[in-house]
Here is the input.
Amino acid sequence: MFIFRALGALLLIAALGSAFDGAVSTATAQEELSSMSCGDLWYRRNAIFARNGYCFKTDRAIRVFGNQGCRFYVEGDVPMSRAERDEVELIRVVERRKGCEV
Here is the structure.
């Protein structure tokens, strides 16, 4: 079950990638994110950090993403593209609006 959910989240990330390159409006991207569950939003946000070398601190994130090869212990130190930073911020906005535990 988790595999299908993770795969679905990855496919959605790929499909929405253009939303953060200016091809689709932020409002459209926000609408897409708003339809996601808190768990899917958490996964999507943390997947960005994981692929950029963040060292997770929570048991949940370490269990899902691991810390092998991580290099950055402070979120602000994680090197991300402008599009990735914008996506993370937009996900956080949606998470707050939905009342998700962040």
